[in-house]
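Quick one, tokens below:
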């Protein structure tokens, strides 16, 4: 139908899409809430749907399974994570320990702000098929650290990528320690940041040619 140049089918289509996106957002937010309360494995689709105030069928219209919600949440965070590793590249390019320590503190802050999602991701990898990576969220950190990579000879780029991934794992483990075994230890975060900075700078230093 069209009146004075306005296509109502187009208006309806845009409204439907807006409603679809709003519902999808509510489901993602509800999933985080439920995951944070009971954990990923214990959470049910029914609980998530109830929290989002939608039907079970609506959940499955948007997401084939809980795992796909986690993929969507991680995808939402991709630009922020990308920005962190671009800043890491700038920090390591200066070889300034203070700049590296600041980046590590910022990265730990990111993990704190996204605590539920990070823990859920650990749970997914620990309990589901390890041969099915979390879809689109596979993230090649080294692609966003071109300055660091440029300092490594071409024949050693694989080694550089391995070192970087190991350092990212160390950062993740350090964050878990700060929230568990070291949670009540005075000054633990400052010491941890110093230790991580020293390890990262040594590990990512390019070999002498």
């Amino acid at each position: 139908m069209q009146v004075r140049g306005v296509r109502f089918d187009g208006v309806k289509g845009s409204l439907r899409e807006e409603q679809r996106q709003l519902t999808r957002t509510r489901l993602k937010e509800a999933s985080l809430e439920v995951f944070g309360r009971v954990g990923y494995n214990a959470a049910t689709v029914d609980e998530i749907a109830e929290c989002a105030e939608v039907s079970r069928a609506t959940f499955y219209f948007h997401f084939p399974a809980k795992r796909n919600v986690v993929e969507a949440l991680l995808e939402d965070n991709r630009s922020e994570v990308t920005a962190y590793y671009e800043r890491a590249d700038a920090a390591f390019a200066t070889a300034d320990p203070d700049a590296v320590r600041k980046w590590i503190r910022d990265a730990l802050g990111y993990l704190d702000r996204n605590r539920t999602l990070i823990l859920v991701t650990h749970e997914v990898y620990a309990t589901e098929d390890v041969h099915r990576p979390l879809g689109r969220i596979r993230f090649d950190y080294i692609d966003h650290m071109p300055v660091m990579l440029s300092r490594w000879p071409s024949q050693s780029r694989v080694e550089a990528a391995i070192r970087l991934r190991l350092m990212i794992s160390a950062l993740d483990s350090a964050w878990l320690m700060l929230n568990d075994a070291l949670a009540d230890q005075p000054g633990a975060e400052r010491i941890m940041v110093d230790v991580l900075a020293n390890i990262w700078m040594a590990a990512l230093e390019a070999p002498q040619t």
